């Protein structure tokens, strides 16, 4: 029975997944006559070393529990918050990336609730006056602009884990007090796919300005989806929209899209059966691919918001706001057009942007490490962009992927890569030899110049006029006398066999065109 049940659930999941993900199914086929409305609330952890109001370092998800906790994070009596200026910087960068308007004056409020993940009994957030208002993200695939309502700075909570066997929970305060920004969208998305595109675009933007890592699986980027349905004719007037339900804590784009689809179906079912959707907060069960009730609107907690008396209003001077704006790194749209103008195709550009899930964007000049785009920029400077792209993606990235390495772990420096491309351009090494060199550097982590390595490993190309090439051609003719006779008699096609022989005996160091030419010369004499 249990087995059948699991199989059935899997089947439902598969069907919903197919419905959600297949792009050729028009939305109307899934829910003819209905309009789907989605608004997203996203919590992104800011990429700051220190927490929002204490001087404790932030931690990654896999660190020893309770090892990054200042007395303030544990709500020791008498401790006071002190705003970390770096978090304000990052929030402002995020705001500019989303075309939002940083506010000269914002303030901090207490949101009260009683749960073990919140030692002080309240979360410091920005309820009345957020740090930034407005903004938008354009989604090219959906051809839709999603408006941002506001961006607020707030503290993250601790992490509680329930242990069923012991019937108790453990609390890890490492995350408590880390800085988050909550980005609230307007209800502008009209399908699960648009919501998916919004999340991916938002991740790309926040990563490009290094405001957040945006890793959903590690919890540094979490999303709540608000979903409602109404008749298609309702249009974009909010007063015509249906009652929304909020699905909390979705931790992957795929699950978010499945959860929205399931919720839409649930709403349509209720309304079609003459019922009324009631405003609820819901959870998502990955195993059933369905949402479930967490609490109804009547049970909604009263957060008793009040201004935090320990924190003065946050006043930002125009000169400071301007300085953050001026220091903004390149945004994805600008990167795209710059790369396109260098002669890469749209597909190439999307590939570069998506290397390592688009996570590593910046470049650490000192370590010579960084994301694929920065590496490409430096390597391809002053040379053919397409050939540099091919070597970096097909060859180098291919080697890294097989070895489960990210681009940031790439052991080849910009200078080594440039040197290798120089050798290729000057025909000093052949493409097969360059591949061997690349593999050698990745595996040995050698810091030597590729030219020196090529000499050491005997990989320098055999030049056209070098006696060695002629010697090898002569050896091929001697080894394959019948083929040589056929070529002499005028059948050029057999020449390839002889060329292959030379290429093998030169271990790829000979240039195939040069070998062709040489053999033809020798056999036509
Ligand atoms: N009819 C609707 N259908 C779908 N989404 C909606 C609808 N009306 C509002 N929304 C979305 O619901 C979200 C409301 O978020 P907001 O943070 O303002 O309030 P909240 O969910 O009540 O509060 P909390 O932050 O405590 O969860 C927004 O993203 C908005 O776009
Ligand atoms: Mg909210
Ligand atoms: Mg909400």
UniProtKB/TrEMBL annotation:
Segments forming domain Asn/Gln amidotransferase: 374-523
Catalytic reactions of this protein: L-glutamyl-tRNA(Gln) + L-glutamine + ATP + H2O = L-glutaminyl-tRNA(Gln) + L-glutamate + ADP + phosphate + H(+)
Pfam families: GatB_N (PF02934), GatB_Yqey (PF02637)
E.C. numbers: 6.3.5.-
Sequence intervals crossing the membrane: none
Lineage top rank: taxon: Eukaryota
Annotated GO MF terms: ATP binding; glutaminyl-tRNA synthase (glutamine-hydrolyzing) activity; transferase activity
Keywords associated with the record: ATP-binding, Ligase, Mitochondrion, Nucleotide-binding, Protein biosynthesis, Transferase
SMART domains to which the protein is assigned, alphabetical: GatB_Yqey
Family: Belongs to the GatB/GatE family. GatB subfamily.
HAMAP family, sorted: GatB (MF_00121)
Subunit comment: Subunit of the heterotrimeric GatCAB amidotransferase (AdT) complex, composed of A, B and C subunits.
Protein name in the entry: Glutamyl-tRNA(Gln) amidotransferase subunit B, mitochondrial
Organism: Schizopora paradoxa
Lineage of the organism: Eukaryota, Fungi, Dikarya, Basidiomycota, Agaricomycotina
């Amino acid at each position: 029975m249990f087995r059948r049940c699991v199989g059935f659930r899997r089947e439902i999941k598969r069907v919903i997944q197919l419905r959600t993900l297949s792009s050729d199914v028009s939305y109307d086929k899934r829910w003819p006559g209905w309009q789907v409305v989605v608004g997203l609330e996203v919590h992104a952890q800011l990429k700051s070393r220190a927490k929002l109001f204490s001087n404790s370092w932030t931690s990654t998800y896999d660190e020893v529990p309770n090892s990054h906790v200042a007395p303030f994070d544990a709500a020791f009596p008498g401790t006071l918050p002190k705003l970390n200026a770096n978090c304000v910087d990052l929030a402002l960068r995020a705001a500019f990336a989303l075309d939002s308007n940083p506010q000269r004056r914002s303030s901090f409020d207490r949101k009260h609730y009683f749960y073990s993940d919140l030692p002080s009994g309240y979360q410091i957030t920005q309820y009345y006056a957020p740090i930034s208002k407005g903004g938008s993200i354009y989604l090219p695939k959906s051809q839709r602009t999603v408006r941002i309502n506001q961006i607020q700075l707030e503290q993250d909570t601790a992490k509680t884990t329930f242990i069923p066997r012991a019937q108790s929970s453990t609390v890890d305060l490492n995350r408590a007090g880390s800085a988050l920004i909550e980005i609230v969208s307007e209800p502008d998305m009209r399908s699960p796919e648009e919501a998916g595109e919004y999340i991916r675009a938002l991740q790309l933007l926040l990563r490009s300005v290094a405001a957040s890592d945006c890793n959903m699986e590690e919890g540094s980027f979490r999303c709540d989806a608000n979903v409602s349905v109404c008749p298609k004719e309702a249009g974009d007037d909010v007063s015509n929209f249906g009652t929304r339900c909020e699905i909390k804590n979705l931790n992957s784009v795929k699950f978010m899209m499945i959860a929205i689809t399931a919720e839409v179906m649930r709403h349509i079912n209720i309304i079609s059966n003459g019922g009324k959707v009631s405003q609820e907060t819901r959870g998502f069960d990955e195993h059933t691919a369905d949402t479930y009730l967490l609490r109804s609107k009547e049970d909604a907690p009263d957060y008793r918001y009040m201004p935090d008396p320990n924190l003065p209003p946050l006043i930002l001077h125009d000169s400071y706001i301007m300085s953050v704006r001026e220091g903004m790194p390149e945004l994805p749209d600008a990167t795209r057009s710059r790369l396109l103008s260098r002669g890469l195709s749209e597909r190439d550009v999307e590939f570069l942007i998506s290397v390592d899930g688009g996570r590593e964007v910046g470049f650490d000049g000192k370590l010579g490490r960084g994301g694929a785009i920065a590496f490409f920029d430096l390597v391809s400077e002053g040379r053919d962009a397409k050939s540099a792209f091919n070597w970096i993606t097909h060859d180098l990235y291919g080697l890294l992927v097989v070895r489960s390495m990210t681009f940031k772990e790439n052991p080849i420096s910009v200078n080594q890569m440039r040197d290798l491309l120089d050798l290729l351009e000057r025909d000093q090494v052949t493409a097969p030899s360059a591949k061997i060199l690349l593999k050698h550097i990745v595996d040995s982590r050698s810091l030597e110049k590729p030219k020196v390595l090529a000499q050491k490993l005997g990989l320098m190309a055999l030049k056209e006029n070098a006696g060695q090439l002629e010697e090898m051609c002569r050896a091929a003719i001697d080894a394959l006398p019948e083929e040589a006779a056929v070529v002499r008699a005028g059948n050029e096609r057999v020449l390839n066999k002889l060329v292959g022989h030379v290429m093998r005996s030169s271990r790829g160091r000979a240039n195939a065109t040069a070998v062709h030419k040489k053999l033809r010369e020798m056999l036509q004499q």
